């Protein structure tokens, strides 16, 4: 009888290795060594989806290169094979990703999607807002530290884009869209939530979680806050 060639082709394995850089959340050339369980994950979100606890991004100390597999302290480039771990790297959040004009806001304590020049940090709202809102918005103290009034989950560090209502209250964009099916008032203060609806219809297809196409940026930038986590 005939045996199938035992020398399994390596094409598959190689192809897999080449094609794989990062996860569905981030483009990065390294894995994070989770400070909590010592397991290797591409990102905090991948970790949190698989474990029963959350990874504290600020505590990450080591990463593993996906190319040479060397474990080393967190840095932008592999010290062994020079693989670039991330076009963007924040040494505070240990965020590695392709360049989306991120910046680290010290007051927010996290990285946000910029460009930085387009945003200012309002100390009263305690949040980075679009430049054109400077002096022209209703400050609500620590507004982003309040949970979303719809889903009651965190807004400040959520990856879901936050939507600023005309009254100044915040909710997740996805929750805002759900809310519009039910009614048009801010659930916190009952003010009309409608001012921007006209734009929404237009932009629904265009705006993703990632930076919006530049041609729409001016039209929408005052309605969103981006978090890059
Ligand atoms: Zn863990
Ligand atoms: Zn991930
Ligand atoms: Zn390496
Ligand atoms: Zn950061
Ligand atoms: Zn900020
Ligand atoms: Zn403010
Ligand atoms: Zn929500
Ligand atoms: Zn409100």
From TrEMBL:
Chain coiled-coil ranges: none
Keyword S-adenosyl-L-methionine assigned: no
Region (Disordered): 1-22
Range of residues in the leader sequence: none
GO biological process, one term: protein ubiquitination
Domain RING-type: 148-189
Cross-referenced Gene3D superfamilies: Zinc/RING finger domain, C3HC4 (zinc finger) (3.30.40.10)
Residues covered by the CHY-type domain: 16-83
A Pfam family per the record: zf-RING_2
Keywords noted in UniProt: Metal-binding, Zinc, Zinc-finger
Gene Ontology molecular function: ubiquitin protein ligase activity; zinc ion binding
Segments forming domain CTCHY-type: 85-147
Any one annotated GO CC term: nucleus
InterPro entries: RCHY1_zinc-ribbon, Znf_CHY, Znf_CHY_sf, Znf_CTCHY, Znf_CTCHY_sf, Znf_RING, Znf_RING/FYVE/PHD
Origin: domain of life: Eukaryota
Full protein name: Ring finger and CHY zinc finger domain containing 1
Species this chain originates from: Panthera leo (Lion)
């Amino acid at each position: 009888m005939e045996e199938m060639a035992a020398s399994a082709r390596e094409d598959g394995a190689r192809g897999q290795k080449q094609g794989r850089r990062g996860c569905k959340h981030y483009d990065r050339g390294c894995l994070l060594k989770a400070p909590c369980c010592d397991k290797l994950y591409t990102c905090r979100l991948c970790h949190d989806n698989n474990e029963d606890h959350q990874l504290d991004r600020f505590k990450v100390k080591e990463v593993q290169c996906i190319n040479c597999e060397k474990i080393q302290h967190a840095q932008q480039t592999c010290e062994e094979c020079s693989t670039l771990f991330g076009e963007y790297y924040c040494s505070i959040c240990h965020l590695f990703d392709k360049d989306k004009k991120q910046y680290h806001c010290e007051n927010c304590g996290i990285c946000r999607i910029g460009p930085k020049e387009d945003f200012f940090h309002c100390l009263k709202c305690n949040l980075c807002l679009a430049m054109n809102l400077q002096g022209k918005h209703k400050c609500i103290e620590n507004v982003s530290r309040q949970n979303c009034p719809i889903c009651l989950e965190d807004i400040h560090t959520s990856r879901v884009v936050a939507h600023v209502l005309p009254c100044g209250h915040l909710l997740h964009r996805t929750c805002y869209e759900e809310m519009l099916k039910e009614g048009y008032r801010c659930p916190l203060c009952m003010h009309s939530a409608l001012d921007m609806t006209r734009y929404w219809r237009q932009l629904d297809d265009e705006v993703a979680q990632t930076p919006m196409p530049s041609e729409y940026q001016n039209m929408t930038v005052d309605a969103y806050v981006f978090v890059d986590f």
